[in-house]
């Protein structure tokens, strides 16, 4: 569990550790459609699903790259 001392600490964490679908695709060197396939197959789990986008925890995306 994460605990943040203040808003700035939370903001810094989000900016450095949370990526959206396009960023995840760039990290993995694949298409957005392939990211959607990974999500559907539960091989990459988003932390939040929005209308046309998903948010991912960056360390999980990087682990998938290995």
Order of helices and strands: HEHHEEH
What is the global morphology? Answer: elongated
Low-confidence stretches: none
Rg: 12 Å
Word description of this protein:
It is built from four helices and three strands. By secondary structure, the chain is α+β, with helices and mostly antiparallel strands. Strands 1-3-2 form a three-stranded antiparallel sheet. The relative contact order is 0.18.
Describe how the helices and strands are arranged.
Layout: H1 7-17, E1 18-20, H2 21-28, H3 32-40, E2 48-49, E3 54-57, H4 58-65
Antiparallel strand pairs: 1-3, 2-3
What attributes does this structure have?
three-stranded antiparallel sheet, 66 residues, alpha+beta, 4 helices
Q: How would you summarize this macromolecular structure in one to three sentences?
A:
The protein has 66 residues and is of the alpha+beta class. 55% of the residues lie in helices and 14% in strands. Strand 2 (48-49) and strand 3 form a beta hairpin.
């Amino acid at each position: 569990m994460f605990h943040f001392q203040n808003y700035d600490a939370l903001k810094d964490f989000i900016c450095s550790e949370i990526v959206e679908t396009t960023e995840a695709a760039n990290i993995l060197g694949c298409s957005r459609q392939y990211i959607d396939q990974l999500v559907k197959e539960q091989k990459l789990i988003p932390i939040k699903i929005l209308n046309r986008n998903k948010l991912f925890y960056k360390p999980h995306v990087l682990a998938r790259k290995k």
